[in-house]
Amino acid sequence: MSELRGVLTMKRAHVLRVAAALALGLLAAPRPATAQCTTGFKPRILVLADTSGSMTRRMADGVLSGGDGSTVFSDAIMTRQITAIPPNGPGFALYPGYKLTGACPTTSMTPSSYDGINSRMYAMKAALSDSLTAASDVQWGLERYSGTTCPVVNTTGPAGAACTSDATCPLYSFCIGGSCKQDNNLCYDAPAYDIACDVHNDTAATYNGDCGTTVAAGNTACATPQVCYADADCAAGFSGQCALIAGGPAASCACTGPSDCPAGYACSANRCVYNASCQNPGGVILVDPTSPTPTTQVLPWLDGVEGLPGGSAGTNPELRASGAGPVAGAARSATAWYNAIKNGNQDPQILCRPYVLVEIVDGLDNCETDTVNGPVAAAGSFVAATVSGAKHANKVYVIGLGFGAGPVPGLDAIAKAGGTGTARLANSRADIDAALNDVVQASVVSSNELCNGIDDNCNGQCDENFPDVAVSGPGCSNAHAARACSNGAVTATHCFASGVYTCAADQRGEVCNAPTCATNPALCPTAEAAGGCNGVDDDCNGVIDDCTPNVAGSCCQ
Q: How close are the terminal C-alpha atoms of the chain, in Å?
């Protein structure tokens, strides 16, 4: 009897293992795509880098750092760098920030000696450099706020007093050739910066930021549709108010009169459109994602080295913090960039290629007439511009710098209009890295072929990376029936069920839709019972009445 109990215990363990496997669906697990998209197009991500004067403030506490961690400025007139300060050189580095502790030394220094490496600008540039280097499957672009740049004239002002160091020269003058002179390539005051070792609490720069151009209400650049994603996003909220813009995929709020639209919007051609003056343009595209090797063109703007033609550092541009923050105007400049591609038929993959704007900002708009609704409308303009018939609507992501834990409703509203939910808040370089990585992952996935019955990558085939699912949609050149499958149970037992392969819920794999024990209890195996000789394979192991495992008829003895 004890031997029989031992056999039954082993048998129950076997049954439980089978039942557990079926219940967990292990025999019908999703199958991943067999290959990655190889159609040759990459998402285009345009990064709006905040270049307002507040970007030299420290990320942690908002205190001015006096710089952005840059190490070199060079032109045909002079070179200033942290490795050649007096007495080893005539001058001090221009943009590294305040000296952190102690007096200015008489030996070479490193960036960590200065507060600029704690600035928002430094963290943003470092994180962007990280992302650009890591994400080769993206066409990157770079935009900054509107402003003017000094012409490169390679001349100096009149000679002043004799000198041996910049420290003995007045503000905006440098010790050049033994005399205090202005470098006319540096034509703008830069109050957000200080020369290394706190010489003047100010210095000069090649860039001066501004608000851009103000245009009147009703201008086509301003009068953009109120983008929506559900009826509740619209003022009236009636059924069907959030309606596709002709051909989709973007949608905007429909209207029959002014009461259907929110404050700041008018009902025009049965759509709610922004009805205030606006900044446009308010940004400058420094590197176009459509240009050859855009990543290699963006990186010099981030490396802490500014070199003008004729200087020892060669020609090397650099982002600087100066002036106001035309967040809305810069978004409209991004929309104009996209519209030029769309209207000029410059991208044969535009129906499939994701277009993304990432706004990295440390504050709200302070240029727009309506600083609340304007930035939201401007983000919506980028989405609403999406070409008719595109697989994915354009998106706007927002990364807010130095806001602490938040929330920041103004930034969240921009992100919502941009189709990305809420703003991402970053308080360190690592935070910015993580946010940019998530943007890249979402953008690259949407440019690949998903399992969804449509042609995501515009190659004429649908779901080609998932060969077992049925393809029957219009425009799919690879139509075929689904391949049959089963739940993995032994054939001809009551546990067995058949089905076909279908797309997994996350659209990144294929799964057999055959019922399992987890979805239908009638398919679960049961224990063979001693004395229960019934001619049925109760435990679905392929052997009938085997109370002794795999011994047919042992239940009948």
A: 13
Q: Other C-beta atoms within 10 Å of 264: how many? A: 18
The torsion angles phi and psi of 439, rounded to 5 degrees, stand at: -60, -45
User: pLDDT band for position 103 (50/70/90)?
Assistant: low
Torsion of CA 318, 321, 325, 327, to 10 degrees: 30
- Residue 38: its pLDDT value, please? 37
Structure token digits, residue 116: 């600029």
Number of H helices, E strands in the chain: 7, 25
512 touches 28 (CB < 8 A): yes
Residue found by looking up tokens 């429909």 in the block: 254
pLDDT at site 458: 79
Bridge partners of 435, per DSSP, are none
DSSP string over 403-471: -TT---HHHHHHHHHTTS-SPEEESSHHHHHHHHHHHHHHHHHHHSPPSSSS-TTSSS-SSTT-TTS-B
Q: Do 557 and 548 touch, CB atoms closer than 8 A?
A: no
Average pLDDT of the chain, as a whole number: 89
466 closest CA partner among 118, 60, 107, 35: 35
**Alpha-carbon gap, residue 110 to 271, rounded angstroms:** 57
Task: Provide the pairing of β-strand 203-205 with 188-190.
Answer: antiparallel
Query: Partners of 278 in the beta sheet?
Result: 215
Residue 115 is predicted with a pLDDT of: 92
**What is the DSSP pairing of strand 44-49 with strand 139-145?**
parallel
- Paired sense of beta strands 72-74 and 305-307, if any: parallel
For residue 485, give the 3-state DSSP assignment.
Answer: strand
Task: Tell me the two tokens of residue 409.
Answer: 């409703």
Q: What is each CA distance from 420 to 383, 402, 456, 505, in whole angstroms?
A: 11, 20, 20, 21
Rg (CA), the chain: 32
Could you tell me which residues come within 8 angstroms of residue 170 by beta carbon, excluding any fewer than 6 positions away?
160, 180
Q: Give dist(CA 122, CA 362) in Å, integer.
A: 13
Give exposure, 149-160, as e/b (b: 16+ Cβ within 10 Å). Answer: ebebeeebeeee
Q: Is 13 exposed, middle or buried (0-12, 13-18, 19+ CB in 10 A)?
A: exposed
CA atoms within 13 A on the CB side of 194: 18
Length of the chain: 557
Tokens of 534: 């019934």
Strands 498-503 and 79-81: unpaired
Instruction: Point out which residues pair with 44 in neighbouring strands.
Output: 139, 355
Does 281 sit behind a cis peptide bond, omega within 30 degrees of 0 on the bond before it?
yes
Give 264's contacts (C-beta < 8 A, 6+ positions apart): 274, 275, 276, 370, 373, 377
Dihedral sign of CA atoms 340, 342, 348, 354 in order:
positive
Helices (H), 40-198: 120-134
